[in-house]
Specification:
Number of helices: 12
Number of strands: 14
Order of helices and strands: EHEEHEHEEHEEHEEHEEHEHHEHHH
Helix content: 40-55%
Number of domains: 2
CATH topology of the largest domain: Rossmann fold
Protein backbone atom coordinates (compact mmCIF):
# COMPACT_ATOMS: atom_id res chain seq x y z
CA UNK A 1 0.00 0.00 0.00
CA UNK A 2 1.33 3.45 -0.93
CA UNK A 3 1.97 5.93 1.86
CA UNK A 4 0.79 9.55 1.73
CA UNK A 5 1.45 12.41 4.13
CA UNK A 6 -0.99 15.32 3.90
CA UNK A 7 0.10 18.50 5.66
CA UNK A 8 -3.19 20.13 6.58
CA UNK A 9 -5.61 17.47 5.48
CA UNK A 10 -8.89 18.86 6.84
CA UNK A 11 -9.33 22.09 4.84
CA UNK A 12 -11.69 22.92 1.99
CA UNK A 13 -9.37 21.37 -0.59
CA UNK A 14 -7.40 18.85 1.43
CA UNK A 15 -10.29 17.07 3.16
CA UNK A 16 -11.70 15.94 -0.17
CA UNK A 17 -8.25 14.66 -1.15
CA UNK A 18 -8.00 12.76 2.15
CA UNK A 19 -11.38 11.15 1.60
CA UNK A 20 -10.67 10.17 -1.98
CA UNK A 21 -7.36 8.55 -1.04
CA UNK A 22 -9.05 6.52 1.69
CA UNK A 23 -11.95 5.51 -0.55
CA UNK A 24 -9.53 4.19 -3.16
CA UNK A 25 -8.23 1.55 -0.74
CA UNK A 26 -4.75 2.01 -2.22
CA UNK A 27 -3.28 4.48 0.23
CA UNK A 28 -2.10 4.54 3.81
CA UNK A 29 -2.93 8.15 4.78
CA UNK A 30 -1.28 10.21 7.52
CA UNK A 31 -2.41 13.76 8.26
CA UNK A 32 0.02 16.16 9.89
CA UNK A 33 -1.55 19.20 11.56
CA UNK A 34 -1.98 20.80 14.96
CA UNK A 35 -4.97 18.62 15.82
CA UNK A 36 -7.32 21.54 16.41
CA UNK A 37 -10.17 19.81 14.53
CA UNK A 38 -9.78 16.07 15.18
CA UNK A 39 -13.48 15.60 14.44
CA UNK A 40 -12.76 16.37 10.78
CA UNK A 41 -10.15 13.62 10.40
CA UNK A 42 -11.86 10.84 8.41
CA UNK A 43 -11.96 7.31 9.76
CA UNK A 44 -8.98 5.37 8.48
CA UNK A 45 -6.56 8.32 8.43
CA UNK A 46 -3.78 8.56 10.99
CA UNK A 47 -3.26 11.88 12.74
CA UNK A 48 0.26 13.09 13.43
CA UNK A 49 -0.34 15.97 15.81
CA UNK A 50 2.38 18.53 15.20
CA UNK A 51 2.80 22.07 13.90
CA UNK A 52 4.80 22.07 10.67
CA UNK A 53 5.88 25.60 11.65
CA UNK A 54 7.94 24.07 14.47
CA UNK A 55 10.67 22.59 12.31
CA UNK A 56 12.48 20.84 15.16
CA UNK A 57 9.27 19.17 16.39
CA UNK A 58 8.26 18.23 12.84
CA UNK A 59 11.69 16.73 12.17
CA UNK A 60 11.39 14.62 15.31
CA UNK A 61 7.84 13.51 14.46
CA UNK A 62 8.90 12.49 10.93
CA UNK A 63 12.12 10.75 11.94
CA UNK A 64 12.50 7.35 10.30
CA UNK A 65 9.46 7.83 8.06
CA UNK A 66 9.37 7.71 4.25
CA UNK A 67 6.33 8.57 2.12
CA UNK A 68 5.53 7.87 -1.49
CA UNK A 69 3.89 11.30 -1.60
CA UNK A 70 3.90 14.37 0.60
CA UNK A 71 1.14 16.90 -0.14
CA UNK A 72 1.68 20.37 1.29
CA UNK A 73 -1.54 22.40 1.55
CA UNK A 74 -0.46 25.13 3.99
CA UNK A 75 2.75 26.73 2.69
CA UNK A 76 2.42 30.42 1.93
CA UNK A 77 5.96 31.85 1.89
CA UNK A 78 9.34 30.96 0.39
CA UNK A 79 10.93 30.43 3.82
CA UNK A 80 8.31 27.74 4.46
CA UNK A 81 9.24 26.13 1.13
CA UNK A 82 12.92 26.18 2.16
CA UNK A 83 11.96 24.52 5.45
CA UNK A 84 10.19 21.73 3.59
CA UNK A 85 13.25 21.11 1.43
CA UNK A 86 15.12 20.43 4.65
CA UNK A 87 12.35 18.29 6.14
CA UNK A 88 11.46 16.17 3.11
CA UNK A 89 14.60 15.95 0.99
CA UNK A 90 15.26 12.23 0.63
CA UNK A 91 12.07 11.33 2.51
CA UNK A 92 9.56 11.17 -0.35
CA UNK A 93 9.27 10.18 -4.01
CA UNK A 94 7.00 13.16 -4.74
CA UNK A 95 6.29 16.45 -3.00
CA UNK A 96 3.09 18.15 -4.16
CA UNK A 97 2.86 21.87 -3.43
CA UNK A 98 -0.47 23.69 -3.52
CA UNK A 99 0.14 26.99 -5.27
CA UNK A 100 -2.63 29.18 -6.72
CA UNK A 101 -4.05 30.04 -10.12
CA UNK A 102 -4.11 33.64 -8.90
CA UNK A 103 -0.35 33.57 -9.56
CA UNK A 104 -0.99 33.82 -13.30
CA UNK A 105 -0.24 37.12 -14.99
CA UNK A 106 -2.34 40.17 -14.09
CA UNK A 107 -3.54 42.15 -15.91
CA UNK A 108 -4.33 39.31 -18.25
CA UNK A 109 -3.57 39.58 -21.98
CA UNK A 110 -6.09 36.79 -22.64
CA UNK A 111 -8.75 35.03 -20.57
CA UNK A 112 -7.39 31.65 -21.73
CA UNK A 113 -4.91 30.28 -19.21
CA UNK A 114 -2.47 27.43 -19.66
CA UNK A 115 0.35 26.35 -17.37
CA UNK A 116 2.76 28.30 -19.60
CA UNK A 117 0.97 31.59 -18.87
CA UNK A 118 3.47 33.87 -17.13
CA UNK A 119 3.42 34.15 -13.33
CA UNK A 120 3.15 37.77 -12.26
CA UNK A 121 0.62 39.42 -9.94
CA UNK A 122 1.43 43.00 -8.89
CA UNK A 123 -1.85 43.35 -6.97
CA UNK A 124 -1.72 40.55 -4.40
CA UNK A 125 1.07 39.64 -2.00
CA UNK A 126 -0.49 36.22 -1.42
CA UNK A 127 0.01 35.39 -5.09
CA UNK A 128 3.54 36.79 -5.21
CA UNK A 129 4.46 34.62 -2.21
CA UNK A 130 3.09 31.53 -3.95
CA UNK A 131 5.18 32.40 -7.02
CA UNK A 132 8.25 32.73 -4.80
CA UNK A 133 7.52 29.30 -3.28
CA UNK A 134 7.33 27.77 -6.74
CA UNK A 135 10.70 29.25 -7.67
CA UNK A 136 12.34 27.83 -4.54
CA UNK A 137 10.95 24.39 -5.24
CA UNK A 138 11.67 24.29 -8.97
CA UNK A 139 15.19 25.57 -8.34
CA UNK A 140 15.65 22.62 -5.98
CA UNK A 141 14.30 20.28 -8.65
CA UNK A 142 16.79 21.64 -11.18
CA UNK A 143 19.69 21.70 -8.74
CA UNK A 144 19.25 18.43 -6.87
CA UNK A 145 16.24 16.59 -8.30
CA UNK A 146 13.85 17.41 -5.44
CA UNK A 147 10.69 15.67 -6.73
CA UNK A 148 8.25 18.59 -6.76
CA UNK A 149 4.88 18.77 -8.48
CA UNK A 150 3.20 22.19 -8.34
CA UNK A 151 -0.60 22.23 -8.36
CA UNK A 152 -2.50 25.47 -9.01
CA UNK A 153 -6.14 25.42 -7.92
CA UNK A 154 -8.46 28.25 -8.81
CA UNK A 155 -11.59 29.08 -6.77
CA UNK A 156 -12.29 25.71 -5.11
CA UNK A 157 -15.20 25.20 -2.71
CA UNK A 158 -17.01 22.49 -0.79
CA UNK A 159 -20.25 22.12 1.13
CA UNK A 160 -18.78 24.11 4.03
CA UNK A 161 -17.93 27.21 2.00
CA UNK A 162 -20.34 28.91 -0.38
CA UNK A 163 -18.20 30.76 -2.97
CA UNK A 164 -18.76 34.49 -3.33
CA UNK A 165 -16.83 37.36 -4.91
CA UNK A 166 -16.57 39.65 -1.88
CA UNK A 167 -16.69 38.80 1.80
CA UNK A 168 -15.49 40.05 5.16
CA UNK A 169 -13.28 38.66 7.89
CA UNK A 170 -15.88 36.18 9.16
CA UNK A 171 -16.29 34.28 5.92
CA UNK A 172 -18.97 34.05 3.25
CA UNK A 173 -22.20 33.56 5.15
CA UNK A 174 -23.07 37.25 5.49
CA UNK A 175 -23.42 37.53 1.70
CA UNK A 176 -25.88 34.65 1.72
CA UNK A 177 -27.75 36.28 4.60
CA UNK A 178 -28.01 39.53 2.63
CA UNK A 179 -29.64 37.62 -0.21
CA UNK A 180 -32.06 36.02 2.25
CA UNK A 181 -32.93 39.44 3.70
CA UNK A 182 -33.37 41.06 0.30
CA UNK A 183 -30.48 43.46 0.90
CA UNK A 184 -28.19 44.64 -1.93
CA UNK A 185 -25.29 42.32 -2.72
CA UNK A 186 -22.16 44.12 -3.89
CA UNK A 187 -20.76 42.84 -7.20
CA UNK A 188 -17.56 44.23 -8.71
CA UNK A 189 -18.04 45.72 -12.16
CA UNK A 190 -21.10 44.77 -14.18
CA UNK A 191 -21.04 41.14 -13.04
CA UNK A 192 -20.45 39.77 -16.54
CA UNK A 193 -16.81 38.70 -16.08
CA UNK A 194 -16.49 34.93 -16.37
CA UNK A 195 -15.42 32.99 -13.31
CA UNK A 196 -14.48 29.35 -12.78
CA UNK A 197 -15.63 27.48 -9.69
CA UNK A 198 -14.37 23.98 -8.95
CA UNK A 199 -15.91 21.65 -6.40
CA UNK A 200 -13.33 20.16 -4.07
CA UNK A 201 -14.31 16.56 -4.90
CA UNK A 202 -13.54 17.26 -8.57
CA UNK A 203 -10.25 18.87 -7.58
CA UNK A 204 -9.48 15.77 -5.51
CA UNK A 205 -10.03 13.49 -8.52
CA UNK A 206 -7.38 15.37 -10.48
CA UNK A 207 -5.02 15.72 -7.54
CA UNK A 208 -5.04 12.05 -6.57
CA UNK A 209 -4.40 11.21 -10.23
CA UNK A 210 -1.19 13.24 -10.02
CA UNK A 211 -0.02 11.47 -6.87
CA UNK A 212 2.61 8.75 -7.41
CA UNK A 213 2.54 9.77 -11.07
CA UNK A 214 6.16 9.95 -12.30
CA UNK A 215 5.15 12.04 -15.31
CA UNK A 216 3.94 14.80 -12.97
CA UNK A 217 7.28 15.27 -11.19
CA UNK A 218 8.94 18.53 -12.19
CA UNK A 219 5.66 19.86 -13.63
CA UNK A 220 3.14 22.57 -12.78
CA UNK A 221 -0.51 21.70 -13.34
CA UNK A 222 -3.71 23.58 -12.65
CA UNK A 223 -6.84 21.69 -11.66
CA UNK A 224 -10.13 23.42 -12.39
CA UNK A 225 -13.55 22.85 -13.85
CA UNK A 226 -14.13 23.60 -17.53
CA UNK A 227 -17.28 25.54 -16.66
CA UNK A 228 -17.03 29.33 -16.41
CA UNK A 229 -20.05 31.56 -15.76
CA UNK A 230 -20.59 35.27 -15.00
CA UNK A 231 -20.64 36.41 -11.38
CA UNK A 232 -24.21 37.56 -11.87
CA UNK A 233 -25.19 33.97 -12.63
CA UNK A 234 -23.26 32.62 -9.63
CA UNK A 235 -25.27 34.88 -7.33
CA UNK A 236 -28.52 34.01 -9.10
CA UNK A 237 -27.73 30.31 -8.60
CA UNK A 238 -27.26 30.93 -4.88
CA UNK A 239 -30.52 32.84 -4.89
CA UNK A 240 -32.37 30.00 -6.60
CA UNK A 241 -31.09 27.60 -3.94
CA UNK A 242 -32.44 29.99 -1.30
CA UNK A 243 -35.70 30.64 -3.13
CA UNK A 244 -34.86 34.36 -3.18
CA UNK A 245 -33.74 36.43 -6.16
CA UNK A 246 -30.64 38.46 -5.22
CA UNK A 247 -30.60 42.26 -5.46
CA UNK A 248 -27.32 42.80 -7.27
CA UNK A 249 -25.60 46.14 -6.73
CA UNK A 250 -22.90 46.63 -9.37
CA UNK A 251 -20.05 48.86 -8.26
CA UNK A 252 -16.87 49.74 -10.14
CA UNK A 253 -13.91 47.71 -8.89
CA UNK A 254 -11.85 50.86 -8.32
CA UNK A 255 -14.66 52.30 -6.19
CA UNK A 256 -14.77 49.15 -4.05
CA UNK A 257 -11.01 49.25 -3.53
CA UNK A 258 -11.09 52.93 -2.53
CA UNK A 259 -13.66 52.01 0.09
CA UNK A 260 -11.73 48.91 1.24
CA UNK A 261 -8.09 48.72 0.04
CA UNK A 262 -7.84 45.12 1.29
CA UNK A 263 -10.01 44.10 -1.66
CA UNK A 264 -7.35 45.05 -4.23
CA UNK A 265 -5.63 41.65 -4.20
CA UNK A 266 -8.74 39.46 -4.24
CA UNK A 267 -10.35 41.60 -6.96
CA UNK A 268 -7.71 43.08 -9.29
CA UNK A 269 -5.40 40.18 -8.54
CA UNK A 270 -8.09 37.54 -9.04
CA UNK A 271 -11.87 37.67 -9.06
CA UNK A 272 -12.58 40.70 -11.26
CA UNK A 273 -10.81 39.03 -14.21
CA UNK A 274 -12.50 36.74 -16.71
CA UNK A 275 -10.77 33.35 -16.65
CA UNK A 276 -10.99 30.29 -18.88
CA UNK A 277 -8.69 27.41 -17.97
CA UNK A 278 -7.21 24.99 -20.47
CA UNK A 279 -7.05 21.65 -18.61
CA UNK A 280 -5.52 19.65 -21.45
CA UNK A 281 -2.23 19.14 -19.56
CA UNK A 282 -4.09 17.66 -16.60
CA UNK A 283 -5.97 15.33 -18.92
CA UNK A 284 -2.73 14.13 -20.47
CA UNK A 285 -1.37 13.34 -17.01
CA UNK A 286 -4.65 11.99 -15.61
CA UNK A 287 -6.54 10.38 -18.51
CA UNK A 288 -10.28 10.51 -18.07
CA UNK A 289 -10.27 13.46 -15.66
CA UNK A 290 -13.53 15.37 -15.78
CA UNK A 291 -14.98 17.89 -13.33
CA UNK A 292 -18.47 16.48 -12.92
CA UNK A 293 -20.10 18.95 -10.54
CA UNK A 294 -21.91 21.70 -12.40
CA UNK A 295 -21.91 25.08 -10.70
CA UNK A 296 -25.69 25.20 -10.24
CA UNK A 297 -25.75 21.81 -8.54
CA UNK A 298 -22.66 22.46 -6.42
CA UNK A 299 -23.96 25.79 -5.14
CA UNK A 300 -27.34 24.28 -4.27
CA UNK A 301 -25.59 21.54 -2.34
CA UNK A 302 -23.48 24.08 -0.43
CA UNK A 303 -26.46 26.28 0.40
CA UNK A 304 -28.54 23.36 1.62
CA UNK A 305 -25.66 22.12 3.75
CA UNK A 306 -25.16 25.54 5.33
CA UNK A 307 -28.86 25.90 6.11
CA UNK A 308 -28.76 22.52 7.85
CA UNK A 309 -25.67 23.43 9.91
CA UNK A 310 -26.27 26.62 11.92
CA UNK A 311 -22.64 26.68 13.11
CA UNK A 312 -21.68 27.71 9.59
CA UNK A 313 -23.94 30.77 9.70
CA UNK A 314 -21.31 33.14 11.05
CA UNK A 315 -22.59 36.75 11.11
CA UNK A 316 -20.28 39.57 10.05
CA UNK A 317 -21.81 42.87 11.21
CA UNK A 318 -18.79 44.91 10.09
CA UNK A 319 -18.93 43.58 6.53
CA UNK A 320 -22.71 43.93 6.50
CA UNK A 321 -22.44 47.60 7.46
CA UNK A 322 -19.76 48.14 4.80
CA UNK A 323 -22.04 46.64 2.13
CA UNK A 324 -24.84 48.96 3.25
CA UNK A 325 -22.55 52.00 2.97
CA UNK A 326 -21.26 51.04 -0.47
CA UNK A 327 -24.75 50.27 -1.79
CA UNK A 328 -26.10 53.56 -0.40
CA UNK A 329 -23.25 55.56 -1.95
CA UNK A 330 -23.76 53.84 -5.31
CA UNK A 331 -27.48 54.61 -5.23
CA UNK A 332 -26.79 58.27 -4.46
CA UNK A 333 -24.18 58.45 -7.22
CA UNK A 334 -26.48 57.05 -9.90
CA UNK A 335 -29.38 59.41 -9.18
Amino acid sequence: MKKALLIGGTGVISLSVTRRLLESGEWDVTILNRGTHPELVPDGAKLLCCSIADEAAAKQALAGRFFDCVAQFINFSPDQAERDLRLFGGKTNQYLFISSASAYRKPMPSPWITESTALCNPYWQYSRDKIACERVLFDAFTRSGFPVTVVRPSHTYDCRKIPVQLHGQNGNWQVVERIRQGKPVIVAGDGTSLWTLTHSRDFAAGFVGLMANPAAVGEAVHITSDESVPWNEIYRSIGRALGKAPRLCHVATDTIIRSDPDQEGPLLGDKSNSVLFDNSKLRRLVPGFCARTRIEAGLRESVEYALAHPQLMQPDPEFDAWCDRVARAEAERTF
